[in-house]
Amino acid sequence: MSASALDAARFGVDLDIPIDPLGAIAVTPTGDLPMLSGRDCLVRDIQRRLVTQPGALIHRPAFGAGAIGYLGINNSAAARSRLGTDARANLLADGRLKDAAIALTSDDGSSTLTLTATLTLRDDSKNVLAVTL
User: Fold this and answer.
1) Average pLDDT of adjacent 10-residue blocks, the chain of 133 residues
2) If you count Cβ atoms within 10 Å of the first and of the last residue's Cβ in the chain, which end, N or C, has fewer?
3) Is the separation of the CB atoms in 114 and 105 below 8 Å?
4) What is the number of other CB atoms lying within 10 angstroms of the CB of residue 104?
């Protein structure tokens, strides 16, 4: 089995649909929807998990850390702590992850918040994912 096939088996295969709801869905020259597999699929799934509001998926009501819900609220230490706790708990629900460490940084007086997740995968490799809100 090739390395890419192993990665696809370990980390999944999914449609490559943009996270931005206003983003255009690309279609391949053959008329198919593009696919993601392996670690690229895992990263997209994690990004989607972080921004999805809990309860948004009827069939998976606990899915999502709700990071988007923190936009426009006071960028306080308490809010950042809640987001970090929610993000870590939700990421650990993904069976492909062994551990997740969350760091939230914000410039003083800035409305920009960066969530950095250091993910330990089941195969013990580490990936760092930064999401700016």
Assistant:
1) 75 76 75 85 88 91 87 76 92 91 77 83 80 67
2) N
3) yes
4) 18
